[in-house]
Design goal:
Layout: E1 7-13, E2 16-23, E3 32-36, H1 47-55, E4 59-63, H2 82-95, E5 101-106, H3 110-119, E6 124-130, H4 142-153, H5 160-164, H6 169-175, H7 177-184, H8 191-195, H9 201-207, H10 220-231, H11 235-245, H12 250-253, E7 260-269, E8 287-295, H13 301-304, H14 306-320
Parallel strand pairs: 3-4, 3-5, 5-6, 6-7, 7-8
Antiparallel strand pairs: 1-2, 2-4
Length: 321
């Protein structure tokens, strides 16, 4: 990431600190973009977008979400309610005197991005979803999800959640960060079909110390940042999975109006073997104004093809402005 991007820290509520990068808009006609990363990333995953859009005059705000960096990272999974995270983001906007933003979410960052617009549509100009599309709030039945994806796609898309929910997963990943990153950022995205997604396979990969060639778009610096992210503590990061499997958001979300009326841009990856675009084919039923784009990438779309991503996002922003 550009070293000119200064990391800041703010107490946004009692005892709750957020670490973030904020570059103020240089053009009053251009909005601020709120970037929400996924797992096991950090605000670093948006480096190409922050560099590009800040130079175009847009405001850029990229927080490390709960569990990452110096941001509030409790070990109690019950603190990882999405509604609480959204309130943290609203408090951060207030701290920075920002009103309306365009929210961009990738992977697990899509969840707070969507809930941001559901809880606070008045603060949102639009939403961009990367790889993971919109599925309305619902009670999660893990066994049913596993069986359903196996029947439709031929393998369990989310079998790795079982490992991430286990008591020993955090230590195993910390102790084998290289092997985990090999698989997460494999040069051959098809490995996710055989060695990440199915039940039991990611544990087998990591503990057997399997290795593969990493994706060519990762520099040594990129890898160093990602490795540090894993080894600084995995349990808070895995709490995103644990809390979802425990359905801790359901009481907050069961009566939400889940129709999204703000403009939405969905960017999927045709080589993504877990967040398969077809899995989100029904999202158009719940979004009034949806544009869908598919790029020839795997799961890390913004990092793999930043030029196309930046073009698609900027074109869409100009269209909705």
């Amino acid at each position: 990431m550009n070293t000119a991007f200064e990391r800041q820290n703010s107490i946004i509520a009692d005892g709750i600190n957020y670490e973030y990068i904020y570059i103020k808009s240089k053009d009053d006609s251009k909005p601020t973009l709120l970037f929400l990363h996924g797992f096991p990333s950090s605000f670093y995953c948006w480096r190409h977008q922050i560099d590009y859009f800040s130079k175009q005059g847009y405001g850029c705000l990229a927080p490390n979400l709960m569990g990452y960096g110096k941001t509030y990272s409790p070990l109690d999974m019950n603190e990882y309610k999405t509604k609480s995270m959204v309130q943290h983001l609203i408090a951060l906007l207030e701290h920075l005197h920002l009103n309306k933003v365009i929210v961009l979410g990738h992977d697990w960052g899509v969840r707070p991005a969507i809930r941001f617009v559901l809880y606070h549509p008045e603060r949102t100009l639009g939403v961009v979803l990367f790889n993971s599309g919109y599925r309305p709030p619902a009670w999660l039945d893990f066994d049913k999800m596993i069986q359903g994806t196996r029947q439709i796609f031929g393998y369990e898309l989310f079998g790795y959640w079982e490992f991430f929910n286990s008591d020993d997963a955090a230590k195993i990943i910390e102790d084998n960060a290289d092997r985990f990153l090999d698989l997460a950022y494999a040069s051959d995205p098809a490995l996710w079909k055989t060695d990440l997604a199915p039940l039991g396979k990611v544990r087998e990969w990591v503990t057997n110390k399997k290795a593969t060639t990493r994706a060519s778009y990762l520099t040594d610096k990129d890898y160093e940042v990602m490795h540090q992210c894993l080894t600084e503590g995995m349990q808070p990061k895995l709490n995103w999975y644990k809390s979802a499997l425990a359905n801790i958001d359901w009481d907050d979300e069961k009566n939400l109006d889940y129709k999204i009326k703000q403009p939405v841009l969905y960017i999927g990856g045709t080589k993504d073997c877990i967040c398969i675009p077809k899995f989100f084919a029904g999202q158009s039923e719940h979004i009034t104004d949806l544009k869908s784009v598919e790029l020839e990438t795997s799961h890390w779309t913004m990092e793999e093809n930043p030029e196309s991503v930046n073009h698609e996002v900027e074109t869409w922003i100009k269209h909705i402005s």
